[in-house]
């Protein structure tokens, strides 16, 4: 168990109509921990990720952030989303705004920062993801990998307690994947609490504190990466790894 839990899911169940997508999920993520969630398509990974900041509501169970249940709606929910940043497969940047404006916007709207303060913070974060020189460009002028790094800077601008990544590299060309993963590795080294849904096994091995393997809506294994990859306990995980690690 994590010493100082930041995110806790207790007996979480989620249905889409008849489909039981999350089954009695129990998961704790400690402060500063990087938890990578892997598993076959349709296993509930992305849904799990989206319940943590209430992009998906759950039918039963409890989700706690810093010891408090997730708020239902309204301002408290907006605050929660500022505290738990999310990076999606698609970058969701505003096409008509510059990179700098994209990163500053929520700071002025949600965090109520002055424009100059917000812009100064945005430039620091763009520097951190290696894109300060692109601040005046528009998303269409950037590669996919660059756009995703802007999206990460935008999430960081809210000074979140945790970041959720929902397959952040799956829409990228292979040569761009590493530039995004490198930014994520640096965040991990800096102590950011992260829940990462990904197919990138190299990232899971090198950056995760724990690997959570899901199948059929359940957490099947939750272990240190070296244990999971060298000696998975379940038949389901062995089968999954044998398919995914073959080159």
From TrEMBL:
<feature type="domain" description="ABC transporter">
    <location>
        <begin position="7"/>
        <end position="241"/>
    </location>
</feature>
<keyword id="KW-0067">ATP-binding</keyword>
<dbReference type="InterPro" id="IPR003439">
    <property type="entry name" value="ABC_transporter-like_ATP-bd"/>
</dbReference>
<dbReference type="InterPro" id="IPR030679">
    <property type="entry name" value="ABC_ATPase_HisP-typ"/>
</dbReference>
<dbReference type="GO" id="GO:0005524">
    <property type="term" value="F:ATP binding"/>
</dbReference>
<comment type="similarity">
    <text>Belongs to the ABC transporter superfamily.</text>
</comment>
<keyword id="KW-1003">Cell membrane</keyword>
<dbReference type="InterPro" id="IPR027417">
    <property type="entry name" value="P-loop_NTPase"/>
</dbReference>
<keyword id="KW-0472">Membrane</keyword>
<dbReference type="InterPro" id="IPR017871">
    <property type="entry name" value="ABC_transporter-like_CS"/>
</dbReference>
<keyword id="KW-0547">Nucleotide-binding</keyword>
<keyword id="KW-0029">Amino-acid transport</keyword>
<dbReference type="GO" id="GO:0005886">
    <property type="term" value="C:plasma membrane"/>
</dbReference>
<dbReference type="InterPro" id="IPR003593">
    <property type="entry name" value="AAA+_ATPase"/>
</dbReference>
<protein>
    <recommendedName>
        <fullName>ABC-type polar-amino-acid transporter</fullName>
        <ecNumber>7.4.2.1</ecNumber>
    </recommendedName>
</protein>
<keyword id="KW-0813">Transport</keyword>
<dbReference type="Pfam" id="PF00005">
    <property type="entry name" value="ABC_tran"/>
</dbReference>
<dbReference type="GO" id="GO:0015426">
    <property type="term" value="F:ATPase-coupled polar amino acid-transporter activity"/>
</dbReference>
<dbReference type="InterPro" id="IPR050086">
    <property type="entry name" value="MetN_ABC_transporter-like"/>
</dbReference>
């Amino acid at each position: 168990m994590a010493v100082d839990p930041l995110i806790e899911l207790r007996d979480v169940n989620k249905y889409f109509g008849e489909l039981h997508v999350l089954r009695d999920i129990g998961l704790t993520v400690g402060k500063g921990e990087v938890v990578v969630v892997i598993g076959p398509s349709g296993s509930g990974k992305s849904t799990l990720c989206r319940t943590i900041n209430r992009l998906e509501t759950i039918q039963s169970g409890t989700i706690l952030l810093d010891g408090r249940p997730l708020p239902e709606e309204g301002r408290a929910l907006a605050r929660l989303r500022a505290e738990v940043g999310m990076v999606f497969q698609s970058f969701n940047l505003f096409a008509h705004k510059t990179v700098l404006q994209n990163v500053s916007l929520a700071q002025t709207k949600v965090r109520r920062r002055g424009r100059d303060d917000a812009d100064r913070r945005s430039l620091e974060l763009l520097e951190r993801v290696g894109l300060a020189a692109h601040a005046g460009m528009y998303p269409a002028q950037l590669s996919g990998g660059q756009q995703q790094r802007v999206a990460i800077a935008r999430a960081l601008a809210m000074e979140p307690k945790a970041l959720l990544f929902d397959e952040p590299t799956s829409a990228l060309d292979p040569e761009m994947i590493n530039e995004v993963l490198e930014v994520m590795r640096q965040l991990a080294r800096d102590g950011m609490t992260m829940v990462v849904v990904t197919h990138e096994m190299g990232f899971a091995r090198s950056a995760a504190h724990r690997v959570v393997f899901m199948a059929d809506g359940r957490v099947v294994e939750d272990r240190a990466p070296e244990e999971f990859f060298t000696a998975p306990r379940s038949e389901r995980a062995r089968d999954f790894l044998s398919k995914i690690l073959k080159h």
